[in-house]
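WARN no homologs supplied; continuing
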Amino acid sequence: MQEDSPVQNENTPDTSQTAPPRRTGRRNRLIVLGAAALVALGLGGVAVATSGTDHPAPAAVSLDAQARADSASRADRSVRESSTPVAPSLSPTPSPSAVSASPTPAKTAAAKAKPKPKKTTKPTPAWVDPMPGAAVTSCYGQRWGTLHAGIDLALPSGTPIHAAAAGTVTQAGDASDGYGNSVFIDHGNGYLTHYAHQSRIAVTVGQKVKAGQVIGYEGATGDATGPHLHFEVHQGMWNQIDPAPFMRAHGVDLGC
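OK structure emitted
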């Protein structure tokens, strides 16, 4: 005898097969929508809320991890870009040729500045006037029946007397024959010069002097009618010659 199976009413819904699919489809749609919203807004680290489930679906976990990675990458890139300052370039860097073409103000000023003339001192001639600017009161020759063996040069008392040329002082002090305080200079060429009637002597015997060096001061010592320099040139000791042509030959005009 065949056992009768229960008759199922065709109007009765089969709840054992239809209910689960409805719940699963709704849950999946919520998960996808939540993940899409999180990705679009860039909000990492926010859990997707689901209704009616205790465990999130694998798709939600995957989307949430991707969103976190994208957010972390953007944050890291933002930090690196902000920590590397870029200096603003207001003007292009000039090329070396441009720099050399336009000189700096310092170089321009130096180029415009005129070079200062070098100070040069004229060399002292070998022979000089023993008392420049003096008036000639007597020349070499006969005077009052005797030989006047030199040239008399007059300026106020105390005027400096200069060595006519370089040489060595052989005598400095009172000389005989009315010369008073005198200086004799040997010039090493066979000639001596004699400077008489000085008020004060400024050199000593054996001293080396240069042309133009002060050797004493004008006065009126010895046989003199007034302050003056009696200047003589000797060719050898006490062999007086006319100083005028001798000094003229050495570039000095004494006015006689």
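Residues 75 and 81 are 10 Å apart (CA to CA).
OK
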